[in-house]
Amino acid sequence: MRPAPPAGPDADDEPAADGRSTRWADHREARRAELLRVARRTVHHRGPDVSMDEIAAAAGTSKSIVYRYFTDKTGLQIAVAEAVVLQIQGALEGVLRVAPTPRDGLRAMVAVYLEMIESSPHVYAFVTRDGSVESGGPLGHFLDSVTALVAAPFARGLTEDRDGTRVARRPEAVRRPADDPHAAALAAAEVWAAGAVGFVRGTGEWWLAHRGQPGVPDRETLTAQVAAWLWAGPVGLLARDRARRTDDVVPTPTEEP
């Protein structure tokens, strides 16, 4: 007697390696995506301390089935974090791409970040707890990638003159590598971006915990405040310092870095 075929998408056995295996893999991926969607929705409505039993019940299945797709609650947390990270990163890249100036891009990214964490604070708390912000976790990778994203336009702003021409490097024979204004501006932009990302994240988390209390600004006001502080502080200082050093370089519209 031939063995019975798998009982369904949550069965332990898998079909033979033929056309059915591809369909099975697609089905499992779709099932996993649906469980992930339900988990995120359940956390959103019930809070970051929701249990795996509650998530399984909301999905109309058992906890053992959820474990089959995500191993444990930490695995589910990481999967939700990855989905959230992709959504936030896509939104940040979108607003930065259409921003006319680095300063507009900064304010737009602060606004998007605060808006997204306010829209689902329970999910944000769920994915940032228990070490998920460490360098090896999904949010840690997200912070690294966003730092690079934020640094790029400010590096351009710090290596261009006010008319948009690029600041030329002086000949190697007459300057040390440490004197390279382009390299120094790139490093300064990356340092600033790393600090800015941490500052915005810390500010946002404080605001989530205190919003609605007397004297705490609303999201729009906080966005304007944070963007102004960041721009007028380190960015303004770096830009002024770069302007003072323009006498040591030759501007040209054609030289590439």
Could you report the average pLDDT, rounded to the nearest whole number?
A: 75
The chain-level structural class is mainly alpha
Bin the strand percentage. Answer: under 5%
Uncertain segments are 1-9, 161-177, 252-257
Tally of helical segments = 9
Give the strand order of the largest sheet, numbering strands 1, 2, ... along the chain. Answer: 1-2
Largest β sheet strand count, sense and barrel closure:
2 strands, antiparallel
Report on this structure:
Helix content is 67%, strand content 2%. The protein is built from nine helices and two strands. A two-stranded antiparallel ribbon has the order 1-2. It starts with 18 loop residues before the first helix and ends in a 5-residue tail after the last strand. The N terminus and C terminus are likely disordered.
What can be said about this structure in brief?
The chain has 257 residues and is an all-alpha fold.
SSE blueprint and pairings:
Layout: H1 19-46, H2 52-59, H3 63-70, H4 73-98, H5 102-119, H6 121-128, H7 138-158, E1 166-167, H8 181-210, H9 219-244, E2 251-252
Antiparallel strand pairs: 1-2
Helix pairs in contact: 1-2, 1-6, 4-5, 4-6, 4-7, 5-8, 5-9, 7-8, 8-9
Which key features would you list for this structure?
disordered C terminus, mainly alpha, disordered N terminus, two-stranded antiparallel sheet, 257 residues, 2% strand, 9 helices
